[in-house]
Records
---
Amino acid sequence: MRSQEDRVRREERSKKKEEEEEKEKEERRKKKEERRKKKRRKRRKKKEERRKKKEEEEEKEKEERRKKKEEEEEKEKVFLITLLSGVHLIFAKILFSYIFPIPYSLLPVAFRSYCLKAINFWLYSCIEMHPLSGHDITGNFPEVTKKQMQLL
């Protein structure tokens, strides 16, 4: 009898041990799973942060490119305006020195302003038609010959 009781106790102990071991295994497995989940979350967060950072950088680059393009366009406009004013002065000088040999100051004021307005209108229309102005119509800037430049 005693041996039977001992056997029963041993079996109970072994069952308890097995159950405890299973519980421990299950706990370890759960902990492992939790760690994995944490790691996955961390990786996802990092990945998301990197993606956001990359998008922000791309947006900054686009903004910088847009600003550079605007600056270039502004420089072209300034160049055209500078060119226009220079050409305007040259043509005004040619007009009043060679076409009308009368001194500029002796011309009536109304006539002077009319001539300058006419020159202005013509030069602005030439620039407006020029490809750099962004229009489809092509035109040429008025050219001053070398001889005219030397006379100035």
---
Amino acid sequence: QAELLGISVSIKEGEAAYVPVGGEGMHLERDEVLAKLKPVLEDEKIAKTGQNIKYDMCVLANYGVELKGVSFDTMVAAYVLNPAKRNYGIDDLTFEFLGRGKTSFKEVVGKQKTLAEVPIDIVSSYACEDADAAFRLGGKLKPLLEERGFAKLFTECEMPLVAVLADMERNGIALDASYLEDLGSGFESQLNELQEKIWRTAGGEFNISSPKQLAEVLFDRLALKPGKKTKTGFSTDVK
């Protein structure tokens, strides 16, 4: 449901352009701009690189543009290179792989509620910086995927999923509510049976979810040998 405020592009390091189509200040007519850009955006032969490009695909689709030729997502590439990272935002990736900082979204928006309320000159500078960073990151991450043997995984598995996930986010997925209700009832029945079995083995009812009560049953009532000791008592974890 995001509003398309503008489009920023970069085709060369250090150069980027921003076309405003909404928000504060002067801007071009959105429909006219999209009509001009649509042939390029929908051309599969023109490769596109982006950061979290799935989001761009969803927003453009809301305006009748099907983004094609999507070949590289810097966020997905960073994930493939290191799935254990906590943050794959463009600010973090720019610092990690390009060795420099960049203006953050929070710095741009400030006390404003939305990006649409920010003056167009500030938005333009921020958007161009983002586009340039994504372009540079693409050039940096592609060879890293090759060097570390992840190029095939990225190209054949991860990138094709981007379009699929974009469609799922826009259209939703169908669920069989009746089947899920039956499944839930079945799981609940199994859990109740397991609970009864545990109580019979323990010789009485207790709160299975309580580590304290569980420890009393295991180590006092059943006299099992305790494992490692924690700050609150013996651990009841099982590996």
